[in-house]
Here is the input.
Amino acid sequence: MAHDGIGAAVRRKEDRRFLTGRGQYIHDVRRPGELHAVFLRSPHAHAAIQRIDTEAAAAAPGVVAVYTGQDLAAAKVGGVPCAWGIVGKDGKPMKEPPHPPLALGKVRYVGDTVAVVIAETVSAARDAAELIEVDYRILPSVVGVTEALRPGAPQLYDDVPSNLCCDWALGDKAATEAAFAKADHIVKLDLVNNRLVPNAMETRAALAEYDPGSEDYTLYTASQLPHVARVLIGALMLGIPEHKFRVVAPDLGGGFGSKQVVYAEEAVVTWAAGKLCRPVRWICERGEAFMSDAQGRDHVSHAELALDRNGKFLGLKVATLANIGGYISTFGPNIPTNLYGPLLAGPYTTPAIYCEVKVIFTNTVPTDAYRGAGRPEATYLLERIVDAAARQTGIDRVELRRRNLIAAAAYPYQTPVLLNYDIGNHQQTLERGLALSKWSEFAARRKESEARGKLRGIGMVTYLEACGLAPSRLAQQLGARGGLFESANIRVHPTGKVNVFTGAHSHGQGHETVFAQLVGDMLGLSVDQIEIVHGDTAKSPFGLGTYGSRSAAVGGAAIFKATGKVIAKGKKIAAALLEAAEVDVDFDAGRFTVTGTDRSKTFGEIAFAAYNPPDAYPLETLEPGLEETAFYDPLNFTFPGGCHVAEVEIDPETGALDLVGYACVDDIGTVLNPMIVEGQIHGGVVQGIGQAMFENCLYDSESGQLLTGSFMDYAMPRATDIPIILTETASTACVHNPIGVKGCGECGTIASPAAVINAVLDALSPYGVTHIEMPATPQRIWEAIMAAEGKRSA
Amino acid sequence: MHAFTYSRPADLKACLAQLAAGDGVRPLAGGQTLIPTMRQGLAQPEQLVDLKAIPGLAGIKAEGDRIEVGALTPHAAVAGSNLIQAKIPALAALAGGIGDAQVRHRGTLGGSIANADPAADHPAAVLGLGATIRTSSGEVPADSFFTEMFETALQPGEIVLSVSFPVPRRAGYASLRSPGSRFALVGVFAAETASGVRVAVTGAGRCAFRLGEAEKRLATAFALPALDGMTVPAAGLNSDLHAHATYRAHLVAVMVRRAVAMACLTS
Here is the structure.
């Protein structure tokens, strides 16, 4: 048998069904007698609803029901809940206004859900939705954070002055001020972290059914966290207890955080299915996704870095305005605070850090986690200001990083902003990153570009991120309204084949392969003897799902723990069958052996004995069967890190930007499957390139209309925009989880925006350009060149 | 999408009769603009008359010193035509750069120019080469075909049958594409033809237009030095999310140079 355990580049088991069109997405799930829901959405960014007349819609052909916010309120349907609250610097909890699933009294963004039409066909529902008459009194709207804070700005909620949801802070302000007081250099930077639309290939979808016989509900939904969705939608919104409510998240075409959010539509179709006693299906259209999927990023920040004369970082001050949109999303307020502030130490020894974040409501789609969630924003700011510091002090940017990176020997390392890093080696990833990118030979490449009339630049990032979410106790101290452990159940069948039930959810990551490799490695089985089951609350034990690069580090550790229990019980059975003491039984490569003898039993023989106990099986003291469950709560976050290098070429005549090279070396802990890791890094890097070069979600500052509501205006990166991405891993094994993994799902997205922009600024350095916002579009680059030339000739 | 009726007439006569039936009747060629627009509810025709079964509307043929391209010829066929590649390589290159592979195989020359999207590529070639548009009612010179944003000289019920391109001495097309839509932010087609130099711009104005200043300079010598110091006024040019008028004006000047350089390279 070829090695297909930990570390092998096993081809993904799930790809056969995906590539042959046999995946089971919600689109593919059909229930007899199903109805179709279409949501009427607000055309206005901010308006009072004076009257809704649904009479004509309800009477239209094929329409079964039309519901508004009033109907849901009358049925006592709860608001869309927040799963992670935050506390302001004044010690008071964030402002948490209700979020009705269908608008009550007011709409707060273009796309806000106003009513739902349920009909025999989608087109009947869509036609009827146009017959709903809504009298809106249009109110002034505000879409930008700076404007939303201004006195006299339109106010989204009567009881939220200045639209300020929370005024949050982290770090030691006095110590940081003291550090600045003794600084030789102070570097200042203002920047925007542009808003992004997640754009998973599969749009959101939900299909709910109710069985009036058993009184059970089933919801098929595009969710990264089906168990959490069951609690939030069932217990909190609809009053359906868990034992009467099954949530299934089948194959999903991407999530990126946008599907870890619990949405109004999921609750509404579930409620309607119960009321109408017929299945109700809703498939989000692409244009609808642009105006309703939780969006990402959207920060306006000011940062200052204090350095001594040798370039040592003394202190960092950050003030950020974070846009959370029109309502509090499931994890919305947590992203720009707890997942942002603690990341501002990065891989550096900065001894004093103070960060203030104002979390602000605006008339825009709510924001929530988007691949990286807070850490890309922190890393972008930090790596931009490090490069700015290199320019200002005249210290080479690589050398400046070398002087400030935490030494490998200094771990474990306590930062001034909460986190305690367990292990890392940033010198190693930096040096290998320089080698992989052929950094030292860049001058020759630049010269060659110049000969063709092009500007060439190279940019680097040394990053550290925190993932493997999360130690429950710490998370709860930070406002999480639940644990953040993960579960696993290992069911060994009588023939020795294994089902693994995990609370993690795969929506493209390759869990079905990686987890099988992990269990197979431990039990001496090949991956095709193991099947991973996920995404169904009726099958898996309660788990928290997949986000924050947690599945291997937390879900994998739970699987490791449960598999260990299987082995422990197997040893008991083997000891009885082999007439040996339990302590004398070893398990290795699928065989239980009495130490120092040739007496042994295979794993399969022990599994068979567990279900068909022979005479020697001590049924009086040992239960039959071989199935174990474990819950694993991580002891700490995990801390991947590394070095990413981007190389760009600019056409100075047009400002057109071409990414010509990308190299990265990541420390992600133990590598379970290098092929899947490479895929995760590639995908992450490309998503970050999207932010740096193409993607920008814009709203009209007057009307609040979404200006980038389709792929015509919202540009995504394409294959032809992306160079060959060179990847390497240079890992230190995480010390606090049993398999040593850290996580790799978000590294690329966290590191690549700053790598690209630092490269762009390097390319523009002959003009003296020191700042450009993302995305670095041709027009922006051309304008930067023009402004610099104007300054020079002035 | 709203309900509509669909017909697929087998000859031009039946087609024109159906198109004459009223305002709500629209001809359907490749459908690369009309169908998405209908899906978004922005167009709500009562009837679609599919042109694809009408014989003779697709195809490319030489006619003396001209090339006639049927209205239903997809962009991919224009791009892949040996005849066009040999005689007007700039037109083949332009067609090969439209949209993506699906669009190029469904979208048609006639559909593109009848729709007259201000950022479409084909209008630049049609205008830049001084082509003649043959319609169901007669012939329209390119100079009077594109009249406004999404508007042409076509009358209600009139359709494009073919476009007759004169073979130029040399021609080039250069554009900078919008990263999202892949439409031209600015595209310039420059040609030296038997009847003089023509320079046509797409993406920058309300519809494709000729750039007199560049034509005048290039008429003296069809070479880059003739363009030295030429600037393009921003007044009247498009401003949108992706490019404001000042940037577009700059890009027009750059793309004129690049189109001319390409023309000189390929001649």
Q: What stands out?
A: The mean pLDDT of chain A is 97. The first strand of chain A starts at residue 35 and ends at 41. Chain A is about 30% helix and 20% strand. Chain A has three domains: 31-139+201-254+259-290, 374-469+636-793, 485-632.
